[in-house]
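Q: Structure tokens for this one, please.
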Amino acid sequence: MDTKKKILDSYQFRYACKEFDTEKKISKEDFDFILETGRLSPSSFGFEPWRFLVLQNMNLREKIKPVCWGAQKQLPTASHFVIILARKGKDMIYHSDYIKNFMTNIQELSSDIVKMKSTAYQNFQETGFELLESDRAIFDWSAKQTYIALANMMTAASQLGIDSCPMEGFDKAKLEEILIQENLLDSDHFGIATMVAFGYRKEAPHHAKTRQSIDDIVKWID
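A: Here is the predicted structure, written as tokens:
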């Protein structure tokens, strides 16, 4: 029960922090731990369609600020600021070099298992989720998976008493253009999924956490 209480307390603690205390910085040890929880997160077929850009350069943060309307206070104050990228269809399609290499060299599967998994993956993309109808469909599928890593990192941070704020408030095309100019984004393989800021709150939330009741969101089928 003590473990459950600690976990729920961390969820109560977490909120979308809009402004951070610039005098407090997350230690390297703690942020490495947060990143590790992202790295260890699950993904569809285990193909890890993500990359994390940790933007600590304040000049670059200032440069992207005009196209990040939802991060006006977070960009200049966050201890750590992360742009999460998702792989595009070129890598995530069932017959790509990325997928073949991943199964062979990362997952270390035998040739027989690679063949079976490739067939299952192809069927999933073609008929199960109909992902091959457009490049955007398969990118959006990749981006959805990055949110699993995003949530795990924010939860891990809250259990350490570290605040966070996930953000979709940005002009995707303009932000990607800046990252391309800075040689930080290979647009053939990646696109921006979302952003998240980490740090320590400047002030306490102005109101208690509000959520729907459990009865409103859960339906049991016995």
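A few notes: The chain has a mean pLDDT of 97. The chain has one domain: 12-202.
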